[in-house]
């Protein structure tokens, strides 16, 4: 008998052991406990790290990776080396939920300096100073310009950015002095609030969607005002429900602090409807079967619709087992399963 066939038979045997039969309820509960206990021992969740200035997001991720090896990790949206603030890192199977983390609204506190421009659109590049305008822009004028930037807007990324141009990163081309024309992309800017203004500096709070470049807002505002502008400071204070007040400082990272600070994976899917699985549901889930919905096990504030994502949980909605899709006949088809037999 081949090794592959032998492994396949072994795995099928384990799955068959979990199938409910009139005399298997005790075994089913014990097997379910073993699976849930194994999941609780694994690192599976999201880490909220406060990134300091002067290091890259990759530097922080590499530090975490060294501490938790062989468990995998990956960040949910980079911060420029200049920037500080919330850097979310998916740990273990939660790396498969990084895209969901990236979709959360982001809040920044930024400082813009008017009367200056640079090739990077911030103060880390080659800065050029312009003569102050004869009439300095007032706070009301600045607020009006900022208001015009709200909504779904077309934004050209900075040339020193990670966007791809003919298979290469734009910043690599820019460092080599190669000319390029970047394509504008639609981004969502939900709110901009002027916190303080005293020429040439202004402080802003910006709430925006994924893919928005705060440096580009500074550049475009400077153009609108006719005096130039760049970003001189940036702090990301929130991503979705994760704020900087609860973030662990990057310099405090240890294996123990990661284990203590790790948010459970279910915290990533708070925006989804949830279905709390019974032992029988878990057995069916492991076999890839669709689940029939029992209203008492469902937590949602709306009527389910076909193709909607729903989180499958256990232990009273506290542990994430899988992500399922609602079928046209309103059953639950598992798509991304985090537990294993």
Give a quick precis of the structure:
With 341 residues, the chain is α+β, with helices and mostly antiparallel strands.
Which features characterize this protein?
single chain; 341 residues; alpha+beta; Archaeosine Trna-guanine Transglycosylase, Chain: A, domain 4; 3 domains; eleven-stranded mixed beta sheet; five-stranded mixed beta sheet; 9 helices
Description:
This protein has 341 residues and is α+β, with helices and mostly antiparallel strands. Helices cover 27% and strands 31% of the residues. The chain is built from nine helices and 20 strands. The strands form four sheets. Strands 1, 2, 3, 4, 7, 10, 11, 12, 13, 14 and 15 form an eleven-stranded mixed sheet that branches. It is elongated and about 75 Å long. The chain starts with a helix and ends with a strand. Residues 1-21 and 24-40 have low confidence and may be disordered.
Order of helices and strands: HHEHEEHEEEHEEEHEEHEEEHEEHEEEE
Helix content class: 25-40%
Question: What are the low-pLDDT stretches, counting only 5+ consecutive residues below 50?
Answer: 1-21, 24-40
How many angstroms separate the termini? 23 Å
**Mean pLDDT figure:** 87
- Proportion of residues in extended strands: 25-35%
CATH level-four homologous superfamily name of the largest domain: Pseudouridine synthase
Task: List the domain count as a whole number.
Answer: 3
The major sheet is characterized as: 11 strands, mixed
Query: What's the β-strand tally?
Result: 20
Top CATH class of the largest domain: Alpha Beta
The coarse silhouette is: elongated
State the secondary-structure class.
Answer: alpha+beta
């Amino acid at each position: 008998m081949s090794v592959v066939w032998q492994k396949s038979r072994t795995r099928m045997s384990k799955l068959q052991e979990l199938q409910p039969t009139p005399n298997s309820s005790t075994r089913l509960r014990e097997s379910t406990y073993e699976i849930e206990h194994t999941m609780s021992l694994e690192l599976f969740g999201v880490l909220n790290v406060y990134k300091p200035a002067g290091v890259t997001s990759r530097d922080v991720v590499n530090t975490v990776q060294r501490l938790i090896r062989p468990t995998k990790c990956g960040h949910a949206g980079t911060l420029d080396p200049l920037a500080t603030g919330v850097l979310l890192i998916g740990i273990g199977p939660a790396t498969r939920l990084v895209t969901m983390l990236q979709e959360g609204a982001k809040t920044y506190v930024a400082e813009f300096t008017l009367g200056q421009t640079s090739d990077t659109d911030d103060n880390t590049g080659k800065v050029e100073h312009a003569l102050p305008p004869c009439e300095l822009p007032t706070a009301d004028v600045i607020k009006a310009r900022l208001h015009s930037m709200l909504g779904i807007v077309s934004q050209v990324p900075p040339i020193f950015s990670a966007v791809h141009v003919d298979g290469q990163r734009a910043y690599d081309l820019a460092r080599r002095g190669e000319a390029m024309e970047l394509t504008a992309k639609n981004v969502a800017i939900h709110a901009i609030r002027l916190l303080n203004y005293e020429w040439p500096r202004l402080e802003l709070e910006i709430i925006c969607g994924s893919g928005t470049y705060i440096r580009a807002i500074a550049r475009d505002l400077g153009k609108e005002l006719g005096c130039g502008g760049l970003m001189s400071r940036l702090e990301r204070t929130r991503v979705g429900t994760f704020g900087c007040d609860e973030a662990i400082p990057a310099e405090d990272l240890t294996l123990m602090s990661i284990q203590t600070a790790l948010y459970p994976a279910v915290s990533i899917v708070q925006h989804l409807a949830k279905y709390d699985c019974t032992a029988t549901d878990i057995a069916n889930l492991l076999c890839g079967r669709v689940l029939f919905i029992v209203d008492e096990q469902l937590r949602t504030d709306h009527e389910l619709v076909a193709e909607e994502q729903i989180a499958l949980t256990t232990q009273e909605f506290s542990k994430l087992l899988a992500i399922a899709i609602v079928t046209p006949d309103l059953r639950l088809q598992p798509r991304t399963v985090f537990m294993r037999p």
